[in-house]
């Protein structure tokens, strides 16, 4: 049996770039496939939860988060979106999906105060979706992780935490921690192939789900 492929962040970007350059698929279509597949994977593992808090970053990982938000809302979920950065500076595909979500619901700023003040039913199970940085993270991310990590620790029952590609606070290629305590993770939904951080077991007991987005190897 052939081993499942493992791609570095650069190899994954090159694979996507080849597909787009060939004219076989657009970046917007790839983002839609990724977000839809991630939403399905999350919903299938969420148990009784039908409330999602989705954290969207300033790049294409955040764009995936907006697609996830839209598909979960269309499936009947209560969805709250908190975002980092200026939406005017989002990459084009992420900006398009920010706009699509904004037609359905608000985008709150990602701060400790905002997350703590979200109007969520007490004692209800909640899914937190970490779509902040994905495979693009490199710099130390201590301040980025803290608001969500503290909210997760304080809420009961503890939220189910799903990461888009990988949790915030890890390097995709080395598994090195980029935060004093990286974001918790119960499920990492990645696309096309596992990344080194998944293959080396750096995420502990987190389940790794690979979503097919129609790319060739």
UniProtKB/TrEMBL annotation:
Belongs to the NnrE/AIBP family. Keywords: Isomerase, Metal-binding, NAD, NADP, Nucleotide-binding, Potassium. K(+) binds at residues 61, 130, 168. The lineage of its organism: Bacteria, Pseudomonadati, Pseudomonadota, Alphaproteobacteria, Rhodobacterales. This is NAD(P)H-hydrate epimerase. It is an enzyme of class 5 (isomerase). The keyword Metal-binding applies. (6S)-NADPHX binds at residues 60-64, 134-140, 165.
């Amino acid at each position: 049996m052939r081993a499942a492929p493992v791609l570095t962040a650069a190899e994954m970007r090159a694979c996507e770039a080849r597909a787009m350059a060939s004219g076989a698929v657009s970046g917007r279509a790839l983002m839609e496939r990724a977000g839809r597949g991630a939403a399905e994977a999350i919903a299938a593992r969420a148990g009784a939860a039908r409330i999602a808090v989705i954290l969207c970053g300033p790049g294409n990982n955040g764009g995936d988060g907006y697609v996830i938000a839209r598909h979960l809302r269309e499936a009947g979920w209560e969805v709250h979106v908190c975002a980092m950065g200026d939406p005017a500076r989002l990459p084009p595909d992420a900006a398009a999906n920010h706009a699509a979500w904004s037609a359905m619901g608000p985008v709150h700023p990602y701060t400790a105060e905002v997350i703590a003040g979200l109007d969520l039913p007490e004692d209800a199970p909640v899914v937190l979706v970490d779509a902040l940085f994905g495979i693009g993270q490199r710099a130390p991310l201590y301040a980025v992780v803290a608001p969500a990590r503290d909210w997760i620790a304080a809420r009961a029952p503890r939220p189910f935490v799903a990461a888009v590609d990988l949790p915030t606070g890890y390097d995709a290629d080395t598994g090195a921690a980029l935060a004093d305590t990286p974001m918790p993770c119960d499920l990492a939904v990645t696309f096309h192939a596992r990344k080194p951080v998944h293959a080396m077991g750096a995420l502990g007991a987190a389940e790794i789900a690979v979503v097919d987005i129609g790319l060739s190897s």
